[in-house]
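The freezer alarm interrupted the setup, so I double-checked each line after restarting. Inputs confirmed:
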Amino acid sequence: MDNSFGNIFRITSFGESHGDLVGIIVDGVPAGLELDLEYIQNELNKRKPGQSSLTTTRLEEDRVKLLSGLFDNRTTGAPICLIIENKDFNSSIYEKYKNFLRPSHVDYTALKKYGGFSDYRGSGRFSGRITAGFVMAGAIAKQILKKYDITIFAYTKSIENIIDEETYIIDEFEKIVELREKSLVRAIDHEKSKLMEKIVEENRQQKDSIGGTVKCIITNFPEGKGGPLFNSIESNISKAIFAIPAIKGIEFGAGFKAARMKGSEHNDPWILKDGKIQTTKNDAGGIIGGISTGMPIEFTVAVKPTASIGIPQKTVNLKTMENVEIEFSGRHDPCIVPRVIPVIEAMTANVLLDCLLIEGYIPRIL
Amino acid sequence: MDNSFGNIFRITSFGESHGDLVGIIVDGVPAGLELDLEYIQNELNKRKPGQSSLTTTRLEEDRVKLLSGLFDNRTTGAPICLIIENKDFNSSIYEKYKNFLRPSHVDYTALKKYGGFSDYRGSGRFSGRITAGFVMAGAIAKQILKKYDITIFAYTKSIENIIDEETYIIDEFEKIVELREKSLVRAIDHEKSKLMEKIVEENRQQKDSIGGTVKCIITNFPEGKGGPLFNSIESNISKAIFAIPAIKGIEFGAGFKAARMKGSEHNDPWILKDGKIQTTKNDAGGIIGGISTGMPIEFTVAVKPTASIGIPQKTVNLKTMENVEIEFSGRHDPCIVPRVIPVIEAMTANVLLDCLLIEGYIPRIL
Amino acid sequence: MDNSFGNIFRITSFGESHGDLVGIIVDGVPAGLELDLEYIQNELNKRKPGQSSLTTTRLEEDRVKLLSGLFDNRTTGAPICLIIENKDFNSSIYEKYKNFLRPSHVDYTALKKYGGFSDYRGSGRFSGRITAGFVMAGAIAKQILKKYDITIFAYTKSIENIIDEETYIIDEFEKIVELREKSLVRAIDHEKSKLMEKIVEENRQQKDSIGGTVKCIITNFPEGKGGPLFNSIESNISKAIFAIPAIKGIEFGAGFKAARMKGSEHNDPWILKDGKIQTTKNDAGGIIGGISTGMPIEFTVAVKPTASIGIPQKTVNLKTMENVEIEFSGRHDPCIVPRVIPVIEAMTANVLLDCLLIEGYIPRIL
Amino acid sequence: MDNSFGNIFRITSFGESHGDLVGIIVDGVPAGLELDLEYIQNELNKRKPGQSSLTTTRLEEDRVKLLSGLFDNRTTGAPICLIIENKDFNSSIYEKYKNFLRPSHVDYTALKKYGGFSDYRGSGRFSGRITAGFVMAGAIAKQILKKYDITIFAYTKSIENIIDEETYIIDEFEKIVELREKSLVRAIDHEKSKLMEKIVEENRQQKDSIGGTVKCIITNFPEGKGGPLFNSIESNISKAIFAIPAIKGIEFGAGFKAARMKGSEHNDPWILKDGKIQTTKNDAGGIIGGISTGMPIEFTVAVKPTASIGIPQKTVNLKTMENVEIEFSGRHDPCIVPRVIPVIEAMTANVLLDCLLIEGYIPRIL
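Predicted 3D structure, all chains:
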């Protein structure tokens, strides 16, 4: 229940940050897909630490290994098992801080949930590294969605107070991805990117961290999919997105801005254009009544600053049961926003593929 | 799949806005609970239209009727069926606008999803009235949670630009509920309430509508419940909340504000106080790693302005396939924020009770 | 969890034998189906007691009432709520026997499961009457399956030692149904029927009861549906069938006979006939590896004798905690086998429709 | 959906017979269990081919490898991944018979389900080898159930017409296991075992195969667990058991015999004995109304003869589309009944542990 997600396209996560491996079982993959493992590897590379001077230096290799579900290079309809092995880790610091509750870390909640038996090394199951499994599954989902011209694109919309308010239309997918990948923080606008990088670098030097927001845009998703109530696209995407560590908010379309708008402003007028019924703007974020409108699905996600910082913090020593102030050393990623982007794209792909399989829009044999 | 929610405590919604009734099946209710039907009725009354001069005038009676699951006034472990009958409705206007797509209404998406067969009268399954079922189920969940001292309280945090930034501590639950119920917009602060009421009244007169935000605070929820990944409290609450029409955003704790914070600001220091491990502040919103910390669970929700307004709008005439501008008449609720509050509380109660049943914290016989 | 079944086509049962009503919510019904309520009523009539001189005399009216999900006589994609009201019941005898554990009745297990809070009148949720809901849902499923030429037919294969070993081919569905309905025990063979009727009548006079077996044959079910492991057709059908009270066994194809066979006897040879790949016999019961072969799906079910008999029995008086022997009076159905037949057909229809919706074989709009 | 089973204790199967490995993810294992890997290995050894001169000679090593979920030798609450690697296999014969439909094999149904993309080598996902994963998961479940004195014991009740009709009481669990393990066919009665062995040996020499039945007895399972309808113990066990290849029937308690009994014979009288309410016999198989009675849970399973035999059989050549007769060579197991026993025990353990976790009878931290 905790570690599986989806109905027909269903992923099951396993592995620990400092165990042998991190993996994912991907069930419900339609048979007959020629699987591009290099594409999965590329997606994985976007999540991995140490991509730029700005980020944490853990030099994980993160080579995807496929253990089941493929035959003659094609999917068979069987569950696909994908793993990455854990190599470059040092668990000794976790021993050192074993008796201290790191602020905003899972030390306390894991202790209460698992009675002290959970693997605390590298945050175990709570590590961002677990999301490598999400990315591998999502890279399969994306390959299938691409066959139906459905693209998923996320980018850094803000870091601290540097906000890119531009509305992007994803008409040339490969180009905008290329543009984003040129930015060290995965922003689109060059100038904003430079300002964001500066903030991240400052936080890196101060051993502090900084949050940001990610916007995700899905194009060509067919209209009339999803449903009211508990199968709404918003319900399913939000459930998936909040499974990613560090996410603390999500909004669709105008989102929290809608809370300050009048109906006459917020309502998206319908228009017949090029023989197609569309809306003139998209404050609904492509979803009305939980169902896709055919306009781009758009949502924005709030990423909190990582809890791991190198500045003295107040906490409790569990052994002595005293209030103390200590500095937790260890690896440090000043801003995980750029690395969360492939994870957000992946979980979105997983949700949307499942939706289209349930609806019978995508068949079980490709 | 569309109309059921929960694992052990599981609700199934049925009925239409202008059909015979709106109902809910509540499965997994522990046996032996002395059910207070008057309490359910009171919760329902908070959701019903026409509570004040500010709101829509549909005078629904909304008397709760229990059809199954009770014996000698106690729950039996059997599914409980609760309904309200539909009486005061006039579907003629829906006939009138049948060929027009109301902006930001479900006319178009329902058409695409159900091929023109859905019951469009009063928005059918998409009506806010469907949430009366959520409220009835939630009123059962709340009665059970109350036995464990767990309280759920939501209030209007903002309407348009009037925002109540105060941090409330729910130490006297009945008192704060009483305070809120005195406000026509379900705000806590008296002065803010008056300003909000003024805005709502202006929109009512202009036949326009206005959005707002609702904050929800859960107290005494035990620590160590929920889980990482797909069973995170955030995942489960957000899935439930986005099943409510008009919700377009959710944030936990500092939420979107966290995206502009440094780790050194955002991290909640642990402290030993009164022999209990707590945090000195609660930017995590009572959840770390998807698991409850024992601090209050806090989240804020964005409610968009209702789509139904009495101002001319651009749209498409489906019969003639022409772009037109028309004014949709009919009942009009300028601000649904106050009426969404009992629904948010109810869905939160449903999620949290399910969580505590899964964990074995609340037994199957009370 | 207890009271819902299915994935896309999902039923949720509610109501009690001696409460206000017995009902079912049917979710996931494709939109656009012209629903034949008279057909549902006819199916229901086959389950109802008092159909012949042989059975219990409770004269339930059992008029199906539809409370939601229909518009202009067609399904809308919304959940359909169907109920029958309870009228002709007398709960006084249950008061009388409250302190006695009726042998092979649920008195003891319900007590332990629900702590004494369950509605014991008329066996409450454990009553065969609850299956009226299954039948109403199944009558919808059958209407949809019929559009794809898929028919489900069950009949009494044996009562006590009178066994009809004939292999029937369902080529003219309406005719064989007509033939079966002429038999008071729903057998096909006229002579066997007479022998079975005699046994039932003997048991009626002796206030005893008698068991039997039911065979179910599904024709025209498409090949290649179902799946290995946990989604096997056998897994799904058996789970559904054991939800029916009084069922104690199920076997597919040769079933328990296969346990005494050699592979060279049991294996069904493949043959190309009329341009179609078939098997020359069907010991597999139309399912290999959990997947349909395109041959008729066949299974047989064991129905135990009803526990309610009018003969003195040994049991425990819960109040005095003494071993006693008493005679339980009350209504008595000497053989429920004929009345279980529509329930078996219905649950089979529910399972198979769900399967074909999951596979995308039957679309979501008809 | 196809490859996962269970609610809280949830297993997910992956791997192929002739791929790299066969594995299982076991989610929902309570934290704090000291895991005995040697016990898992022993269970696995009971399933493995080549245990005696009677069985197939594939000499799989089948060493269990644990890839996740353990820390300091204890379970952590995280998903446990267990695998066995595939080493000793030769897929060339599958190439040879690629165009022929082996009778009663999955060649045809897999072709129709997966469009020709499934891994046919060694029957891929349909191989009995996949059940090694069930056994590994079950060996964890059994360790937990043992802490609550719940034991699961299955044995060969019949092979062909040699039937052991004895009713065994499992009072000394270890002893009866020892007795069974002395029998080459896992029977209890020494003389019956010898007769069974003789039949198996005959079939081995004739390159034929033979079916049988397995009886399973669960002792000390607490009363009042399970539920009516879709959560009945019979429903859940049968769903699990039919996920095992070669199973074609299941019956609980008196089962099909009940179909020939009168109520006065079949009803189990209640009796107060040693201060405990029990039944004087157990034709109900320990389950009434889907709920455990506290008496042993008993069921019997029909195992068909394996489809792989070395005798010429009629079939279709898919390439030439001609009816042919050919002899399929390859490894041959004349009777899989003894090897199915650990699988039946394992799936039963998985179901029952899940049930007790849902009920809150077994806590989430041990």
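Quick read of the result. The CA atoms of residues 46 and 342 of chain A lie 6 Å apart.
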